Amino acid sequence: MPTLRQVRLIGKPVVFTAAMLPLAGLVAGAAGVPAFQLGANPVETIQDTTGIWALRLLLLTLTMTPLGWLTGRSWPLQFRRMLGLFAFAYAALHFTNYLLLDRALDAAEILADIGKRPYVTIGVIALTLLLALAATSTAAARRRLGRRWQALHRLVYAIAILACWHFWWQVKKDVTEPAVYASILGVLLAVRLGRHARLRGYRL
Ligand code: HEM
């Protein structure tokens, strides 16, 4: 099992580099590197890539605590903050791409979208909540907020549900992919509820 020093010196740089790869692929594609072409609709490719990675990183963040229980070690917890911040960064890029490249900052169109397409409204709510968690993710904010910090950061479950919902709702026909992500989230939530119930002495 890795020591905390190994996590800091090796694990974190490796995870950081891995989390940067999808973004690096997009930048390479935008710069015209042939192996990373963004396809016929680059704006949609950027929208989909940043969206799916925001969701994957959010689910990975939620996997760290159960992984710690499973292994009986604390090292997985060391990755939670970095993964959560990467999830936020990809979601912010996703939103920026929507505002700048997809809607060209056309306020009327954006407002109409929010009213007309409920999955956009859900995305905006998820991103706003994620922003609150990213802004309070520092050790200083944790100390300042005390017990309220824990309560605030439990919102990550609601955010993950909203993100899966957002994904499901924007799919036109085949819901297989969002269903896979929603099932993974379902397992992660069930594991937590199961442990919570066991610790409180409920028989499942
Ligand atoms: C936590 C925040 C968010 C997450 C995790 C997220 C995730 C996703 C995912 C997974 C997809 C589908 C990608 C695919 O098809 O492979 C998607 C699509 C999309 N999202 Fe988000 N999203 C978030 C916030 C937002 C926000 C704030 C907006 C805009 C206001 C937005 C607008 C869109 C649009 C326009 C699409 C593409 C729909 C289409 O292809 O027709 N999302 N998002």
Q: How would you sum up this structure, described in words?
A:
This protein has 204 residues and is mainly alpha-helical. It has one domain. Helix content is 79%, strand content 0%. It contains 9 helices and no strands. The chain has helices at residues 4-30, 42-71, 80-102, 107-116, 118-135, 139-145, 147-153, 155-170, 176-199. α2 runs parallel beside α9, α3 crosses α5 and α4 (107-116) packs across α5. It is globular and about 50 Å long. The model has no long low-confidence stretch (mean pLDDT 95). Bound molecules: protoporphyrin IX containing FE (HEM). Protoporphyrin IX containing FE (HEM) binds next to α2, α3, α5 and α8.
Keyphrases for this structure?
204 residues
Task: Give a quick precis of the structure.
Helices cover 79% and strands 0% of the residues. It has helices spanning 4-30, 42-71, 80-102, 107-116, 118-135, 139-145, 147-153, 155-170, 176-199. Bound molecules: protoporphyrin IX containing FE.
